[in-house]
């Protein structure tokens, strides 16, 4: 138990350090954007007839720090605001907090990413076992090759091809937006059906993009376990095929769970391409649009949230490992 | 059909080959050996002599790219193991033949407690009375000086090397197998633990009335526990007989060399003389003639062309042209 | 084991054997020849491509989004420019940026990995924390954010930034390699012989890792190509540069290639270029793997 706590606190410390680095980076970048948007906003408001005091406060609400004052004061202001959960105000959607925008975008990212990743994980792991057992067979070979090819192709290429095939050449599924606007949002049949229809291609793309990696990882993991002494020992003790299979599967899948948790975190960043292609209003699209609209507070906030997602995924991966691997759980060296 | 008495084992003309880029190479070249019911037989030899392959053959478990090319492995109550396949073979493993692993250090699933793996074993062999199985295991572990309850609740990484080895022995015995094969059971253990394990093996052997086969490269281990001793070289049994006689008056030049090579604790280290030359590997075993001739001090012309037949005289078997010449052959072959 | 062989003739015959080995490995699987051919083709396009076409590329107002034909094998774009010409002339930026990235990634990664692996202790800890940080920072979002201050007009600039964001993987791999060499007594033996540190690193460690580093370099090239094309595709960078990503962006967000089939060839041409280049590099990596990994060669 002690070791788990120690590992966890180490992770938390490292995660905090990383979040600090990222926020500092955001701050430095926002301060160094050509044309100084913070100063620009302040001056624009004064031109519009605001008093300097008002303009100052209004700009500070946007970016989290005062437009005047020294760099150090601005920096500490910014960090202080973040510590109090204040991500600033959005410029492109006036009157809305950055946190609110991020909150409403998050659900469009989380559900498809989760669905697509779990789908490809299950598929990839199952086929990976097969590819490892039938290593010398034709089908096993084909599976491994398809895995490395899919693994090598960038997400956006897969996404564009998926759209080209299922939406342009053979139009059976919609490729834009999260839902048809004709239907009233709520828990009703047509709305949900439309949601699912619109989510199908993005989820398929997530699945295809990561499936190759799972096949390859599982294949090599199973191959390693098959060479382990305890598998042969179990065989020589006359363990039944079912039990033997469970021994192999559980030991082989263990390292993959960590990758799963980590890849969920990374996929939030990867969602940028897929959400842009499918015009899906998640965090990735939010980041791209904030840059297009020069909404720097929103940009900084989204970047921060994507980073936090990775930190959380890191910690979750470690905890997960501790739960499923008794060697870590009891805190002994394997 | 669990036997309650010790089975006898007869291996005849067993040839095991390994598939390599250079073709199929023999790891065992027509080995014949029998284990008398109720005895402890030891097999000694350098690494690569085929002793582990022979041990695995008793369970028809030679691993690919190796395979049993021909020969018979007859175990009382099981018949010819070489002919067993599928479920029949699986059931024989563990239930009738217990196997203790060379790498028993790592012979347990790291993700499950010993007890859970024991239950898996029981279910695999259709044991209805699992509590009784656990009770037997606890008793066996207790017999070996361990706290049975605690060990069953432990994961592999929580046990020391000696404890793991005892757990391995428990797994081999708990289903009441009466033939037990131990492949290098004390390698990688310290001297004290080694002695304890050997004592356990001997005691349990007598208590349960087992037929036991111990593979080792350690002449000391062989001398301590075995009743009869077989010496292997280049995939052949070159000498076999009662342990005291084989060690006391070795006949085969290889056995003599092996014994001379052992340094004695109380003697001058210079007295120990290493065997000249190197043991053959799969690829360098001569295709014809005696496999030992390159290192043999008694080499004669016939050794280059004819593989010596094992010849048995007063319960001792030797496969050597030079030795065979000296004595008058009585029975041309072991176990006809 | 000898540590150095200052005798001159040996390296020459070794090299000849090496090339013969390369030839044999390539011949064994024809697909690898194809891989080499593809990579050579793209390098040719990158070096000579812009010389083959007039600058700026001719437009044909009568043939906007023309279908594929002999004159325009992949059709034309929204202003009637030949799509194939766009792909060919766009290769230079893509490859240059990829190459610059690979050089920086490998140089930084190797240096940091070697330092960490060689000087255990505090150095190691600090450098590995740095590497962890580099590896966990979300790269693509960071690139997007960076694009607000940095316009990446030259491919070299793009390469430098991508390289600075991508050395972590190699650093970690090189460190573990040098640790394993260390474990095998490699370094201790050399130290015992009284060889200076620089000699050990340059003459003993690097050569045994060179093949590994070379393969990672190729993989880094593919990663860099994806990242830069992706950035242009997202449209966060100004379109001064001719790049496959710009084509993708204009066809998808401008030409509506995803809603009508007319602009589809315009979209597919750069995609095909990316896929082909990936395939070429994967096949070459496969061949290199076998050339440098004697264990795979045997069988």
Describe the structure.
- The complex is a heterotrimer of chains A (334), B (336) and C (299).
- Chain A has 334 residues and is an all-alpha fold.
- Chain A has a domain at 106-295: MetI-like (MetI-like fold), CATH 1.10.3720.10.
- Helices cover 78% and strands 0% of the residues of chain A.
- Chain A contains 13 helices and no strands.
- Chain A has helices spanning 2-32, 37-47, 52-63, 71-83, 98-133, 138-152, 155-169, 189-226, 229-236, 241-277, 283-292, 296-324, 326-329.
- Chain B has a single domain (9-108, 159-326), classed as Rossmann fold (3-Layer(aba) Sandwich).
- Chain B is an alpha/beta fold.
- In chain B, strands 6-7-8-3-9-10-12-11 form an 8-stranded mixed beta sheet, with helices on both faces.
- With 299 residues, chain C is mainly α.
- Chain C has one domain: MetI-like (MetI-like fold), CATH 1.10.3720.10.
- Helices cover 73% and strands 0% of the residues of chain C.
- In chain C, helix 7 (168-183) runs antiparallel to helix 9 (197-234).
- At the A-B interface, helix 9 and helix 10 of A face helix 2, helix 3 and helix 6 of B.
- Chain B: InterPro entries: AAA+_ATPase, ABC_transporter-like_ATP-bd, Oligopep_ABC_C, P-loop_NTPase.
- Chain B: Pfam families: ABC_tran, oligo_HPY.
- Chain B: This is ATP-binding cassette domain-containing protein.
Low-confidence stretches of chain C: 1-12, 295-299
Question: Helicity level of chain A, as a percent range?
Answer: over 70%
What percent of residues of chain C are in strands? Answer: under 5%
What do we call the CATH topology of chain C? Answer: MetI-like fold
- On the 0 to 100 scale, the average pLDDT of chain C is 76
Query: Which structural category fits the helices and strands of chain C?
Result: mainly alpha
What is the H/E string of chain C? HHHHHHHHHHHH
Quaternary organisation: heterotrimer
Mean pLDDT of chain A: 80
Q: How large a portion of the residues of chain A is in β-strands, by DSSP E? A: under 5%
* CATH uppermost class of chain C: Mainly Alpha
Proper CATH architecture of the domain at 106-295 in chain A: Orthogonal Bundle
The CATH superfamily of chain C appears as MetI-like
CATH architecture of chain C, please?
Answer: Orthogonal Bundle
Largest sheet report of chain C: none
Question: Which descriptor suits the 3D outline of chain C?
Answer: elongated
What would you give as the CATH superfamily of the domain at 106-295 in chain A? Answer: MetI-like
Level-1 CATH class name of the domain at 106-295 in chain A: Mainly Alpha
């Amino acid at each position: 138990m002690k070791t788990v706590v120690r590992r966890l606190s180490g992770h938390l410390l490292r995660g905090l350090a990383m979040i600090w680095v990222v926020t500092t980076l955001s701050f430095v970048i926002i301060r160094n954007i050509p044309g100084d948007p913070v100063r620009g906003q302040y001056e624009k408001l004064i031109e519009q007839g605001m008093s300097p005091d008002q303009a100052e406060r209004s700009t500070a609400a946007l970016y989290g720090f005062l437009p005047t004052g020294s760099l150090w004061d601005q920096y500490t202001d910014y960090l202080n605001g973040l510590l109090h959960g204040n991500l600033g105000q959005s410029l492109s959607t006036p009157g809305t907090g950055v946190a609110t925008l991020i909150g409403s975008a998050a659900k469009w990212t989380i559900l498809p990413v989760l669905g697509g990743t779990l789908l490809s994980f299950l598929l990839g792991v199952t086929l990976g076992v097969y590819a490892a057992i039938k290593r010398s067979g034709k089908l096993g070979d084909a599976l491994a090759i398809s895995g490395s090819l899919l693994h090598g192709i960038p997400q956006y290429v897969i996404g564009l091809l998926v759209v080209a095939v299922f939406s342009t050449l053979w139009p059976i599924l919609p490729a834009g937006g999260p839902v048809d606007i004709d239907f009233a949002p709520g828990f009703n049949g047509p709305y949900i059906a439309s949601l699912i229809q619109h989510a199908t291609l993005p989820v398929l793309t997530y699945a295809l993009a990561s499936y190759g990696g799972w096949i390859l990882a599982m294949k090599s993991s199973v191959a390693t376990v098959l060479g382990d002494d305890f598998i042969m020992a179990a065989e020589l003790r006359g363990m039944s095929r079912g039990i033997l299979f469970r021994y192999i599967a559980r030991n082989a899948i263990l390292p993959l769970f960590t990758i799963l948790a980590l890849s969920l975190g990374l996929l939030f960043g990867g969602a940028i391409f897929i959400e842009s292609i499918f015009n899906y209003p998640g965090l990735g699209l939010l980041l791209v649009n904030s840059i297009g609209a020069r909404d720097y507070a929103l940009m900084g906030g989204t970047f921060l949230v994507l980073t936090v997602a990775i930190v959380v995924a890191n910690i979750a991966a470690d905890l997960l490992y501790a739960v499923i691997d008794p060697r870590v759980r009891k805190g002994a060296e394997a | 059909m669990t036997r309650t008495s010790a089975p006898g084992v007869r291996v005849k003309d067993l040839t095991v080959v390994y598939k390599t880029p250079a073709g199929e190479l023999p790891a065992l070249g027509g080995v014949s050996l029998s284990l008398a019911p109720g005895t402890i037989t030891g097999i000694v030899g350098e690494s690569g002599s085929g002793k582990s392959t022979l041990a695995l053959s008793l369970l028809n478990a030679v691993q690919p790219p190796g395979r049993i090319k021909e020969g018979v492995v007859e175990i009382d109550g099981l018949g010819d193991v070489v002919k067993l396949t599928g479920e029949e073979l699986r059931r024989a493993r563990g239930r009738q033949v217990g196997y203790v692993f060379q790498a028993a250090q790592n012979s347990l699933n790291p993700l499950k407690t010993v007890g859970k793996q024991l239950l898996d074993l029981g279910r695999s062999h259709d044991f209805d009375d699992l509590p009784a199985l656990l009770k037997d295991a606890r008793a066996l572990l207790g017999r070996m000086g361990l706290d049975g309850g605690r060990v069953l609740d432990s994961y592999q990484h929580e046990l020391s090397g000696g404890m793991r080895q005892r757990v391995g022995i428990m797994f081999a015995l708990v289903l009441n197998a009466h033939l037990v094969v131990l492949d290098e059971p004390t390698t990688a253990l310290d001297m004290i633990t080694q002695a304890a394990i050997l004592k356990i093996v001997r005691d349990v052997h007598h208590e349960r009335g087992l037929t036991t086969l111990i593979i080792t490269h350690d002449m000391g281990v062989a001398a301590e526990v075995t009743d009869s001793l077989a010496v292997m070289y280049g995939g052949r049994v070159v000498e076999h007989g009662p342990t005291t006689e084989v060690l006391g008056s070795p006949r085969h030049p290889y056995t003599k060399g092996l014994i001379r090579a052992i340094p004695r604790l109380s003697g001058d280290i210079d007295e120990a003389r290493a065997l000249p030359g190197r043991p053959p590997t799969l690829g360098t075993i001569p295709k014809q003639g005696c496999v030992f001739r390159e290192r043999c001090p008694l080499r004669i012309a016939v050794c280059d062309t004819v593989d010596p037949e094992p010849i048995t005289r007063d319960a001792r078997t030797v496969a050597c042209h030079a030795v065979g010449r000296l004595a008058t052959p009585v029975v041309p072959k072991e176990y006809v | 084991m000898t540590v150095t062989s200052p005798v001159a003739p040996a390296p020459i015959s070794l090299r000849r054997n090496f090339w013969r080995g390369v030839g044999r490995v390539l011949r064994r699987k024809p697909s690898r020849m194809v891989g080499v051919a593809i990579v050579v083709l793209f390098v040719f396009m990158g070096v000579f491509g812009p010389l083959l076409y007039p600058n700026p590329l001719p437009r044909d107002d009568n043939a906007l989004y023309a279908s594929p034909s002999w004159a325009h094998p992949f059709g034309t774009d929204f202003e009637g420019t030949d799509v194939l010409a766009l792909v060919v002339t766009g290769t230079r930026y893509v490859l240059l940026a990829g190459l610059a990235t690979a050089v920086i990634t490998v140089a930084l990664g190797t240096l940091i990995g070697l330092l960490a692996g060689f000087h255990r202790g505090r150095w190691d800890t600090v450098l590995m924390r740095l590497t962890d940080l580099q590896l966990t920072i979300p790269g693509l979002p960071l690139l997007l954010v960076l694009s607000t201050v940095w316009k990446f007009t030259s491919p070299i600039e793009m390469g430098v930034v991508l390289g600075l964001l991508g050395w972590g993987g190699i650093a970690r791999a090189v460190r573990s390699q040098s640790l394993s060499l260390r474990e095998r007594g490699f370094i201790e033996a050399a130290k015992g012989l009284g060889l200076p540190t620089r000699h050990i690193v340059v003459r003993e460690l690097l050569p045994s890792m060179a093949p590994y580093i070379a393969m990672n370099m190729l993989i880094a090239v593919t990663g860099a190509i994806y990242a830069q094309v992706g950035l242009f595709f997202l449209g966060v960078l100004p379109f001064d540069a001719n790049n496959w990503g710009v084509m993708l962006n204009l066809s998808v967000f401008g030409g509506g290639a995803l809603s009508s089939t007319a602009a589809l060839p315009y979209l597919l041409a750069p995609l095909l270029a990316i896929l082909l280049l990936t395939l070429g590099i994967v096949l070459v990596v496969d061949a290199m793997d076998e050339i440098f990994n004697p264990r795979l060669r045997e069988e």
